[in-house]
């Protein structure tokens, strides 16, 4: 079981590394405003996400409703297993940080685009003052 778990963790680490590379590539496309390349990267991220979910399912099946923390306590002498798990957690944190950064750039770009569109489109009614001296919309 431990050998299989190590194998699954190694596979997960490879997949998460691939996901991190794709997110960094997406970041460069966002920064350089390469809109057409963003379409292709999204489908690649989806494929990697599905592969990661498949490996996670294998890992959970091997654990039989145990947590990784409890398993590490059981097999405390197995440092390779612990290093693999800690490495995976570190990679997942890096992926989360990169994803959040990409999301922020997307939201800022969308906000800027909407602001520009609001400035460019004509208003349907004229702004006037009401009896209190405030704009009537």
UniProtKB/TrEMBL annotation:
InterPro entries: FlgN-like, FlgN-like_sf
Keywords on record: Bacterial flagellum biogenesis, Cell projection, Cilium, Flagellum
Name this protein carries in UniProt: Flagellar biosynthesis/type III secretory pathway chaperone
Biological source species: Clostridium punense
């Amino acid at each position: 079981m431990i050998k299989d778990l190590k194998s699954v963790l190694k596979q997960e680490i490879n997949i998460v590394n691939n996901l991190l590379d794709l997110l960094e590539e997406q970041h460069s496309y966002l920064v350089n405003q390469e809109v057409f390349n963003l379409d292709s990267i999204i489908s690649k991220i989806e494929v990697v996400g599905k592969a990661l979910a498949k490996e996670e399912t294998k890992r959970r099946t091997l654990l039989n409703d145990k947590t990784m923390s409890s398993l590490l306590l059981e097999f405390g002498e197995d440092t390779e297993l612990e290093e693999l798990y800690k490495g995976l957690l570190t990679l997942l944190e890096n992926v989360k940080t990169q994803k959040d950064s990409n999301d922020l750039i997307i939201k800022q770009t969308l906000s800027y685009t909407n602001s520009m569109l609001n400035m460019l489109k004509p208003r349907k009614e004229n702004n006037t003052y009401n009896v209190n001296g405030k704009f009537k919309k």
